Amino acid sequence: MSNGHKSIIVTGASRGIGHATVKKFSTEGWRIITCSRDVVPDACQRDPNWSAHITADLSKPADQDRFVAEALEVLGEAPLHGLVNNAGISPKTPYRERLGCLNGDLAAWKEVFELNLFTPLRLARGFAAALHKGRGAVVNITSIAGHEVHPFAGSAYSVSKAALSALTREMASEFGALGVRVNAIAPGEIATDMLSPETEVLIPRIPLQRLGTPEEVANVIHFLCSEKASYVSGTEIFVTGAQHIF
User: Fold this and answer.
1) Distance CA 86, CA 35 (A)
2) Cβ neighbours for 53, distance < 8 A, ≥ 6 positions apart
């Protein structure tokens, strides 16, 4: 990979916030390594700004290790300037029923935590040296659901995102010695495929009176990875239209 451009790794990149993030950084001229459990969508395969895509199921530790190894091979000796831990899962019943503490399968809880919490940790550790070389930034995608009981997000998802908020603080403390900043973004109701159809009923609880867009989240991710945020670390930015203040 060329040293002439800043480089970033984005997980969960095939749709929603991840896809919007890739488009934002591509527009800004960054070299991008993407990861999702699916191959790159046809529309993106025609986009010359996609530098490299690695298909991996990051809910599996073996795939996590393989992804790190393959991504480092793509990077070569080039530094890494950003890592966006966006891949996540929020399981529901076939009837899209919310899974709580009483009706959620414990095996599913473990799968949720593997992807939503342990994957960001393992990737940050795996790319620590490359991030140190680039004096880069890690952005963990948490959720408004990690800070309140959400009517649609399941308990496992919410608790895993709360844990990721705590992990962000711990990582910021340790990675600072490497010159690496670590922050989180907590999106609210963003118009992606993960939303429940019933989400529309929440709009009256959002002061801005609308859903957010993936592009609005991507803009904040880009800011946190840029020099404009060079002294911002250990924080979590709510991108919720002020929904989180209630």
Assistant:
1) 10
2) 13, 33, 34, 35, 36, 39, 40
38: CB partners within 8 A, 6+ apart: 14, 55
- Known catalytic residues are 157
Q: pLDDT value at position 197? A: 66
Report the C-alpha gap between 83 and 33 in whole angstroms: 10
Which one-letter DSSP state was computed for residue 41? P
The whole-model pTM stands at 0.91
pLDDT score at 48: 56
C-alpha to C-alpha distance for 82 and 201, rounded to whole angstroms:
36
Residues of the chain under the 70 pLDDT cut: 1-4, 40-50, 92-97, 151, 194-197
